[in-house]
Amino acid sequence: MARTEKKLSKQAIKKAAWRHNWTLQWCWNYERMQASGFAYSMVPVLKELYTTDEEVCENLERHMQFYNSHPGASSVICGSVVALEEDYQTEMADSIKVALMGPMAGIGDTVQGVLVQPLSYIIAASLANEGSFLALPMVIIPLLLLFLARWPLFTWGYNRSVKIIEDLSGNSDFNTLREAAQVLGLTVVGGFVPSMIGLKFLSAYSKEMTDEATGEAVVQTVSLQKTLDGILPYLLPICLVGFCYWLLKNKKMSPVAVIGIVAAITFVLGALGILG
Amino acid sequence: MSNLLLAFLLAAFTGLMILFCSLAISGLYNPLVFAFVTGLIVGDVGLGLQVGAACALMALGFYTYGGATIPDYNVGAMFGVLIASQSGDVTQGIVIGSVIALLMSWFDILGRTATTVFQHGGDRALARRSIQSFERWHLAGTLSWFLGRFIPVFIGIMFIDRYEVIATFVQNYAWVKNGLAVIGKALPAVGFALLLSYMDIKGYWPFLLLGYALFAFMGVPTLGLALIGIAAGALFTGKARKKEEV
Questions:
Q1: What is the DSSP string of A108-165?
Q2: Cβ contact, residue pair A39, B138, below 8 Å
């Protein structure tokens, strides 16, 4: 399947990448999700490959099938589809979309949703809490870099054409990345749960004790929070997160339901002056 | 600034943000950016950062897997700053902001559904063999997304004066105020738990413990935790060791 001839102008390929990377989701809908965006990206390419509007539209209709992937990782797919269209391997182009949109969504969602986005949010939030303006670049730059990576990803997909499937399935780098993401993510979350959730017990209990030296009765106040801190610091935030985790994971509750439950419980405890 | 102008500017800002910073550059549509910009407008950037940080933590675990609708803590942060600056009470802003974030998800669903009309327009254009018309229909999909944010934000800000009723009520009853303050502190727990539910705790629990111990007993700050996490990740996956062998 060697590339026989290069039919497409550099201009058309550039336009396809630009359209894909900016507008893929501009017509996103529940019915066929990114379909219209993918077809729109293929217009500059198909216009150069086919002479009549009839042919171009016929081929665009092929691209109006259901499509949904991670918008960044989808660049690889779009690049390789452009290369396949250039060779008129239309069936291969259609099947590579179906075959790769799921796996690429998995990769993109892990990199963005588990690694880059939460970590930059956490670190930026702690900077913002200290009143630092660095919070802004901290949250903007990592996500901007992720966006800019779409262009090299597209070129990679285009250069490898159908071989991209071998590249992706034989590649162990992604598993390494996924592992490193878990390690980094859990370390940071482990430290941030106690530092970011400032919940404390306000209640104290008083106890009458006899002063051993003088024999007089004294009232000693013991703070519940101090007692708990003696057992394990930040026990309250940990228990709260654990409770939410249990509701989400074991009880399979929706996040909105969990928000409702947590809000109701903590409102009552706050209004009663137990928590603060 | 008149209320009408403020409502128009912030509604247009939100609409443009969803197109360029959520659908295009995904992830830049975030609470810190919204709160910072709103903070600039009300003339209190410190307040903006404070509300933004709280909303960013609440939004933590929420991610649009497969196009899922999630609470819009970005619009929530914007209203949070407006309300906090009006009432002078930050936690009130954060709590009301998070309620607005939940309400906004209905408009998200509406916007995502209405776009279907534009896709069908694209189908018809292709059937007519008109490439140009197809391209226009695709770009017109932005209208649905833009208005899905513009309309609710515009209306919300036009009526923001009505909020005074709630603010006075809260101020008169200390227990309501205390309750709201605790909700504000507790809600980030849901964000953390949601993020953890996507992670493999069974396989990697020692690192959760490590992070906790580093902060709780040694007081390691933010960036320190991240750096230790990167080092641990490199060691654990054997990347650092392999380099030495080569």
A1: HHIIIIIIIHHHHHHHHHHHHHTT-TTHHHHHHHHHHHHHHTHHHHHHHHHHHGGGHH
A2: yes
In a domain, A263, yes or no: yes
Q: How many domains does chain A have?
A: 2
In a domain, A77, yes or no: yes
Are both A154 and A21 inside the same structural domain? yes
- Cα–Cα distance for residue pair B95/B183, rounded to 1 Å: 7
Among A194, A210, A233, the domain-final residue is: A194
Mean pLDDT by 10 residues, chain A (276 residues): 68 97 95 96 96 95 96 96 95 94 90 90 92 94 96 96 82 78 90 86 74 72 82 91 95 92 94 89
Q: Give buried/exposed letters for B103-129 (b at 16+ CB in 10 A, else e).
A: bbeebbebbbebbbbbbebbbebbeeb
The pLDDT value recorded for residue A4 is: 52
- The answer to whether A228 contacts chain B (CB < 8 Å) is no
For testing contact with chain A, the best of B19, B21, B45, B212 (most A CBs within 10 A): B212
Q: Which residues contact B24 (CB under 8 A, 6 or more apart)?
A: A21, A22, A23, A25, A26, A71, A147
For residues A75 and A88, state if they share a domain: yes
| In chain B, residues 161-220 whose CB comes closer than 8 Å to chain A | 175-176, 178-183, 185-190, 192-201, 203-205, 207-217, 220
- Residue A172 located in a structural domain: yes
| B176·A185 Cβ contact <8 A | no
What's the complex ipTM? 0.87
Q: Which domain-ending residue is among A165, A194, A223?
A: A194
Q: Is the same domain home to A92 and A15?
A: yes
Q: Per the CB < 8 Å rule, is A183 touching B56?
A: no
By CA distance, what is B112's nearest residue in A? A29
Domain membership of residue A29 (yes or no) is yes
Low-confidence ranges of chain B (pLDDT < 70): 1, 239-246
Contact between B156 and B78 under an 8 Å Cβ cutoff? The reply is no
Chain B residue nearest residue A110, CA to CA: B198
Q: What is the pLDDT of residues B148-198, one digit of tens each?
A: 999 999 999 998 888 878 878 887 888 888 898 899 889 889 989 999 998
Which residues form the domain of A84?
A: 10-194
State pTM to two decimals.
0.87
Q: Inspect the interface and report whether the beta carbons of B139 and A23 lie closer than 8 Å.
A: yes
A167 and A141 in a common domain? yes
Whether residues A190 and A202 fall in one domain: no
Q: How far apart are CA B27 and CA A70, in angstroms?
A: 12
Q: Is there a single domain that holds both residue A20 and residue A134?
A: yes
Q: Is A136 in Cβ contact with B33 (below 8 Å)?
A: yes
